[in-house]
Please model this.
Amino acid sequence: MTATLVKEASPPAPSHPDRARRLRLRRRGRIVAVLFVLPALLLLGALVVYPVLFSVGRSLFDASGTRFVGAGNYTEMFRDPTTLKAVRNTAIWVVIAPTLLTGLGLILAVLVEKIRWATAFKLLLFMPMAVSFLAAGIIFRLAYDDDPDKGVLNAAAVTVHDAFKGSSSYPTARAREAGGGGGGGAGPGLTKEADGAYTTGADLSPGTVTALGLVGVAPKDLPDDAAPAHPAATGQKAGADEIRGVVYLDFTPGGGGEPGVVDRQESGLPEMTVEAVRDGRTVASTTTAADGSFRFTGLDGGSYAVKLPAANFAPPYDGISWLGPTLVTPAIIGSYLWIWTGFAMVLIGAGLSALPRDALEAARMDGANEWQIFRRITVPLLAPVLTVVFVTLVINVMKVFDLVYIIAPGPVQEDATVLATQMWLVSFGGGNDQGMGSALGVLLLLLVVPAMVFNVRRFRRSQR
Model:
């Protein structure tokens, strides 16, 4: 009994001496970690947290910042047509740009694996990422220029159009107000029709020779093969079933000459379409020769009118108005695709290289073609990567500013505006209403935060 009591009353065993040292080291490590993190926390607070809190507070005041208006800016924001247009354009960007970029990145990543110079091709597509949005905006502002002599896209469009449809050689030509003919025969005056065509009176009968004079064409703009019209005008004789004539430039270089008369130095207008019209119906059509002469043969007796169709005077095709109100947003999205396609391709290509090759080979051995492998194996396995790329691009698209501000001309800036540009324009670009601008900034933050939270959770799940 005594021994038992003595044993129970014995003092506890001393604690391990290393435990206290480990606690001190852990405490010291935490202090060091906080010291290392503190500059980043201060920077984060100064550049992110404080501006967010200040913007939220500023959005509750009026433009001067002195009168509290509560939710008035938010209410007014959704009544303003320009802001609603910015919300609509932002929605278009969010739906179209990330979808196209993810799809293009996936297609290019799969195709690049099958070519020999894959690294060079990836480098070529990724190079636009090295260009700032400012420089890219200037590049595409020039590329989208309406003038075909400046804008490369309109130059290509005009070239293709003219290759298939052609263009008028005399867009500035017109008849004299008191037009007349002369030279080899009586020339009736030309009357301008509503569609831009010129026509004579319906009093020409077979056996007639007529001269149709036009002005408004600079001698330097004449075709290279244009010949003097005087010999054709004075030397023609029409048969009993013919109407002959000449279309000429009623202008003598250096001055002189008589209006309505084919003078010796006046040039014919070649390649101009001429029609013979009877009772409102075209019965014959021809094209003028190098000296501007033309003739219609096999005509029945009666009265005819000679017509120069409007196509002869149509203005040249100038291309597409890329930066007009209709196409400005798709045009800017196109420039965004040029910049970010390489980014999407590289990220998806990294995920593609990590796919289990045995699954792809097993599918090929089972007789699956490449389309079936792509649709049923590659895309499902790449779904996590595609989701991350898509959400990352959504976040980026919501904040797009530079391209819209630089590419869209002033008159259509309102048609192309998005939330980021509208926020800047309202605050500093002439509106001087920083209360409304702060409300737009808060709205933009609220739209971006869910996508950011989704991306963070996705990363955490992938790490587990």
Summary: Confidence is low (pLDDT under 50) at residues 1-7, 179-187. Residues 123 and 374 are 24 Å apart (CA to CA). The two ends are 59 Å apart (CA to CA).
